[in-house]
Every structure is written in C-alpha cells, then in structure tokens.
Amino acid sequence: MLDPETIAQRYLAIWNERDGARRKSLIGALWTRDASFVDPVAKGDGIDEIDAVIGGIQTRFPDFSFTQLGKADGFGDYVRLTWELGPQGGDAPIQGTDFALIENDHLKSVTGFFDRVPQQ
Fold it and tell me: What is the secondary structure of 47-81 as a DSSP string?
C-alpha cells in the first residue's frame, strides 16, 4: 500500500490543480472508478462528479489553495489527513480532516469534516 503521506500529497495536489483536464487525469489515476466523496456541503460519486465537486470549490474560492497540516497517518486500508484552505501566504479561514478508504492503492471513498469554518 502507498504510505499515508504519499496519498495525502497526491490527494491535495488534485484539489489544487486548476487545469481541468489535468485534474481529471489525476483523479482517474488516484481514485477508483466507483469512488465517492462526501463532506458537509458536497457529494460526488465517480470521477466526473468528484471532479465537479473540486471544480466547484475552486470556483467558489478562486484565490485559495489547500495545504496539509501535520503528517497524514493511517492503518490498514484507512488514511487520515488534516488540511487548511486559504490564500497563499495568508491565514486560512477553513480547516478540515478527511478520512479515506484505500482499495488497491486507490481512493475508494473520502469522508470530509470541517474543523474550522468562518462564522457567518
């Protein structure tokens, strides 16, 4: 199995990839075809829907990028990573933790939680 740190780096690189064709190719290389993603505000099943979720976040936060916080860890077929989303070089208003199920070195499912979001 790929180590949790490698999975986390590849996963966040996808979230930061702005070129749609390249991002979709990266998703296809890391995720299973029947993969799923869910967090409190978005859900996607399969490569096309996951790509749409990521593209939607990039549209909503055009000047923000994802940065890993700490080291990813895991056991068995599970990986956990913590991230922040914000402007480069600035304070990140959003933080979260994602839990991934790995199948044959690919992401099978990711469930995301928000640890910090701005007050509305």
Answer: HHHHHHHHHHHHHHSTTEEEEEEEEEEEETTEEEE
Predicted confidence (pLDDT) per residue in 9-47, tens digit: 999 999 999 999 999 999 999 999 999 999 999 999 999
Q: Would you say residue 61 has pLDDT above 90?
A: yes
CB under 8 Å to 57, separation ≥6 — which residues? 15, 42, 85
Q: Is 46 left (phi over 0), alpha (psi -120 to 50) or beta?
A: left
Residue 119 has pLDDT above 90, yes or no: no
Q: How far apart are CA 3 and CA 8, in angstroms?
A: 9
How far is 26 from 6, CA to CA, in rounded Å? 14
CA distance 14 to 54: 8
Cα 46 from chain centroid (whole Å): 14
Question: What's the whole-model pTM score?
Answer: 0.95
Distance CA 31, CA 91 (A): 30
